[in-house]
Amino acid sequence: MDNEEAIERPETQANDWLSSVSGDVHFWVPTLVLIGGLLLLRWVS
Amino acid sequence: MGQLSSPAEASSAAHPALVAPERVRALQRVGVLCGVAAGAWLGAAEVPTKLVSTGLSPVLISFAMVVGVFLGRWSLPAMVRGTSGIRADIVEAPHLVIWAIIAGCLWSVANTLTIFAIRDLGLSVAFPLWNTNGLIGILWGVLFFRELHQAGWRRWGAVCGGAVVIFLGGMLLARASSSQIASHVALRGIAAALGAGVLWGTMYIPYRKAYLSGMNPLSFVSFFTIGELGMMTALAVAYMGSFGNLYRQLTGAQDVLFWLLAAGFVWVIGDIFQQYAVKYIGVSRGIPISNSNQLWGLVWGAVAFGEFRGWQHGAVAGAIWGSVLMALGLAAISFSVADNSEYLKWAEAAEREHRRYGIDIEFVRSGMQGRSTNPPQRRTWLDWVLVAAATGAFVWTGLRAHWPSIALDGTAAVVLLALCLALLAACVAALWKVTRFN
After folding, report:
1. Residue B158 falls inside a structural domain
2. d(Cα B190, Cα B205) in Å, to the nearest integer?
3. What would the DSSP string read from start to end of B36-91?
């Protein structure tokens, strides 16, 4: 998608942004570790 | 967002040919200095907590410290950079707010785990276990951010060997300390300490991602602390049953709140230096160096609080050897600076962020070089309100604080404080001279 098209269609831009985040391994690794940490905390407390 | 630039434009995002080798070396020197100062200040953050009586709930102690951290993380950046500058940075890469909040949540959960680890194992044993975060950080740095790629076996050996030596030194210190303190080793405590290490080690993924994207550390920490305070409040309410209970416990601890807020504030200074260290020398070098906070904590305990008194000769020798090992590990990593070939790999990792999120090429390039594309902003009324609110909170709690009855060697404390302040002054001067705090 080029810049002009993205400016004209903000909802598409938002979808691109979300898909960039949700497809990023840098997002999922910390998120999964955080969930694991919360489960561990529940066990140790 | 999300649009790709041309390959030619992308490849010039942060190409080392555009960065003078002297500039790279200057940034690395600043990064190492920041790592050392981070260790000193993160270690000093333990001091105010020593002044607090042990009758308080550990979760309350953690919560009050996080409130101090929150005050520090908004007032210091507001004073140094201004909220307008922070806003301008976030507009360039708004997606990083998500990572800042995740990192803050990771910090809070890890910090709470350490409380349970200390409860089960004691501080001296738990500390080196969660300091494995340096090894986790190296793993993520290599896997995700191309750190140590094309670094050569010598740098690999220095960084990984140094990190392992620091870990061994930490274990030796723990053994020396634990032989003097009655504690039982429990599987639950070990799991909590190692879990905290994994969470803190993983927290460096958002850090490194932000700084490869060109983000200013002072801007990143402002959003980081929203996740931090939000998660810590949720945990505190969950453990205490309700907001009302949390409030009642806080008001009941008025005479020690100042020390806990101060611990959080001192911790923020150390953490900001750690952020700059991660930005300029990467996770794999910055974190092991700043993990020297364990050594500083021991020095404060031994010299200022006289914790060595009554120790057996073998335990003192163990503590000295552990400290020497940690210092050797630190030296190995500090002198193993990245050369241009490794810097090229960092630039490739930065290029990924530029391509994936469509971050302005100049923003990425100048951020990696310790420069800013945004002109300095004037301070606004909001900045002064934030500074005044934080100052007011410290003055208000300070007026209600009591000096606890604890043996403290005043001369030693002054010397250690002077050392910390000297490192602070050196870092501030170096950061200002080389990066203007970018």
Report:
1. yes
2. 24
3. HHHHHHHHHTHHHHHTS-TTS-HHHHHHHHHHHHHHHHHHHHHHHT-HHHHHHHHH
Does B1 map to a domain?
no
Q: Where are the domains of chain A?
A: 3-44
Task: Please check whether residue B130 touches A, CB under 8 A.
Answer: no
> Which residue range forms the structural domain that includes residue B394?
7-435
Q: Does A16 touch chain B (CB under 8 A)?
A: yes
Q: What is the ipTM of this complex?
A: 0.79
How much is the pTM?
Answer: 0.80
Structure tokens of A35? 């969930």
Contact residues, chain A, for B235 at CB < 8 Å: 41
Contact B109 A41 (CB under 8 A): yes
User: How would you write the pLDDT of chain B (438 residues) with one tens digit per residue?
Assistant: 333 344 444 444 445 445 677 888 888 889 999 999 999 998 888 777 666 655 677 788 888 889 998 888 888 888 888 888 888 888 888 899 999 999 999 999 998 888 888 777 666 667 777 877 888 888 888 888 888 777 677 777 877 887 788 778 777 766 665 555 445 556 788 888 889 999 999 998 998 899 888 888 888 888 888 999 999 999 999 988 888 999 998 888 888 889 889 888 898 899 889 988 988 888 778 888 888 887 787 788 778 877 767 667 777 777 777 777 777 777 777 677 777 777 777 888 888 888 888 888 888 888 777 777 777 777 888 889 989 999 999 999 999 888 777 777 888 889 999 999 999 999 999 999 988 887
Q: H or E segment at B276?
A: helix B254-281
Compare CB distances from B98 to A2, A21, A41 and report the shortest one's residue.
A21
In-domain check, residue B2: no
